[in-house]
Amino acid sequence: MQLGLIGLGKMGFNMRERLRAGGHEVIGYDPRPEVTDVPSLAALAEALPAPRVVWVMVPSGEVTRTTIADLAEVLEPGDLVIDGGNSRYTEDGPHAKLLGDKGISFIDAGVSGGIWGLTEGYGLMVGGSDEDVTRAMPIFDTLRPPGDKADGFVHAGPVGAGHFTKMVHNGVEYALMTAYAEGYELLAAEDLVKDPQAVYQAWTNGTVVRSWLQQLLAKALKEDPGLDGLTGYTEDSGEGRWTVEEAIRLRVPVPGIAASLFARFLSRQEDSPTMKAVAALRNQFGGHAVQRISESG
């Protein structure tokens, strides 16, 4: 099958390689000349015979909006656009309408797998019509992990369902990473435990907490036992925030996911205004000792 792929970063580049290895003809476009196959979106459209399938794999937000608007001008009725980035699901409806007004179909696809997807396959969560998803299945089948067709791929519902599902996936990911990290810190704090990495390595097989994320933490601890080469500063890319916002809208309690998001906020503070205020209050009402900053700093 022929595919146009826009965005050849860490994910898109590896997806192009996996699809080509699976026998598909992939023409990629990226602003960076060292990785692109064609010089422009217009050239990408010209290189693909109609009806075309074009996969967009660029950062969410304005870049995605601009790319889809540009595609609406260079593609033709009967073509299909797949947004595989981490767009917020609320943007999928407007994107589908913009393209639909031109006779162009739209699928939203949540993609999980990171840099390991090239060899292990990608988890795919898609939203769109039955007809459009069936049309793109040869691509999805090559990208997803091998094995049972019910594993690694789900047609979650109509347009928007794919990115909503991926949003919740990433919220769960936030909570899982925090739980594994808290467990590591607790193990490392106890002198009875001589090798926290060995514990996490042992947990990778036969235990109820084993998972790929847990295996990756065991790998990271083996490479850097004290994680001395890192700081605790941790960004969030948006999906965790969106998950909490949607949970509030739907009145669904997600305390674990919310706490993991706030833990990332806390990681970026050199000093906590909240805890400084708590220290001040304890001193005010009980005369409790506080640590003061000297004039010399």
TrEMBL record:
Keywords: Gluconate utilization, Oxidoreductase. PROSITE patterns: 6PGD. Transmembrane segments: none annotated. Gene3D superfamilies: N-(1-d-carboxylethyl)-l-norvaline Dehydrogenase, domain 2, NAD(P)-binding Rossmann-like Domain. One of its GO terms (molecular function) is NADP binding. SMART domains: 6PGD. Residues 162-296 form the 6-phosphogluconate dehydrogenase C-terminal domain. SUPFAM superfamilies: 6-phosphogluconate dehydrogenase C-terminal domain-like, NAD(P)-binding Rossmann-fold domains. InterPro entries: 6-PGluconate_DH-like_C_sf, 6DGDH_YqeC, 6PGD_dom2, 6PGDH_C, 6PGDH_NADP-bd, 6PGdom_BS, NAD(P)-bd_dom_sf, Pgluconate_DH. One of its GO terms (biological process) is D-gluconate metabolic process. Belongs to the 6-phosphogluconate dehydrogenase family. This is 6-phosphogluconate dehydrogenase (Decarboxylating).
